[in-house]
Amino acid sequence: MVPTSKAERKAALDVASWMFNVVTSVGIIMVNKALMATYGFSFATTLTGLHFATTTVITVVLRWLGYVQPSHLPVPELLKFAFFANLSIVGMNVSLMWNSVGFYQIAKLCMIPVSCFLEVLFDKVRYSRDTKLSIVVVLLGVAVCTVTDVSVNAKGLIAAVIAVWSTALQQYYVHFLQRKYSLGSFNLLGHTAPAQAASLLLLGPFIDYLLTTKKVYAFDYNVISVFFITLSCLIAIGTNLSQFICIGRFTAVSFQVLGHMKTILVLFLGFFLFGREGLNLQVVLGMILAVAGMIWYGNASSKPGGKERRTPTDKSHKNRSLSDSEQLDEKV
């Protein structure tokens, strides 16, 4: 059945955008896991640079074909975004290397309150009591599912703080730039992907060497590893685009809350496909709690006063700008 009303059409596009993000994100996790764990390609920063290089090529082709219209993004804004985005990538890699898996998961959970703080500080967003409580329930549920051992050291803590704040700033900035300059997801990606590709491909091999003591140029490339690298780059196009689409439509906080649904789905699919090892009452209860919190968040944040700007003019401006960017995404 084709959606008829504007609200139904928006809801359908929201669901499609989110499913696009889930499929590409889970897909790239599985491919990268095979690439790194099975074939030993442990150069995560360089691989991310290749992802953005591939994305750059696609955006150039689409612009040449006329699917993406020319747009403007000031160079200072582009440089700030690239700085936060690259710092996020490096910070996450270092945090995972220097911290236990438990503390790494705790740090990732902290992105939601940090994103909330940024929205309250810069966008004057007000959250209702139910919205705040639903976020707490989501955090508790995901923590119960994923957090096991928690150990921390000084350098690991510094890396985690940098990773959390830079990632939250990068995701907030995606929404901010789309709103301020009325940019569609492909337009913004067309501006940012080349800068990230160039910087990460330039610095990536050095950063990866510091993290792994291995040289990317000395890796034993064969047909299978090159196939998985290529497949990872192709899936990354969808992952990068879907992230920009989702943040543009949902805001950074909602994207983080919905993002934990992917964590639950990955756990569930892992148990379903690879056996019930590790599946216990604690994990099941955590899943139920997290899903309940996400449903609650969706209902609470969509109600009047659940999540709103304090200045009506800003809100109307946001809706107008987002409407422009959504139209551009739909055309693409």
From TrEMBL:
It comes from the Eukaryota. The chain crosses the membrane at residues 12-31, 43-66, 78-96, 133-150, 156-174, 186-207, 219-241, 253-275, 281-300. Signal peptide: none annotated. Keywords: Membrane, Transmembrane, Transmembrane helix. It is a multi-pass membrane protein. It is found in: Membrane. Residues 23-297 form the Sugar phosphate transporter domain. GO terms for cellular component: membrane. InterPro entries: Sugar_P_trans_dom, TPT_transporter. The keyword Transmembrane applies. Pfam families: TPT (PF03151). Residues 302-332 are annotated as: Disordered. Coiled coil: none annotated. Residues 305-316 have a biased composition (Basic and acidic residues). This is Sugar phosphate transporter domain-containing protein. It comes from Dendrobium nobile (Orchid).
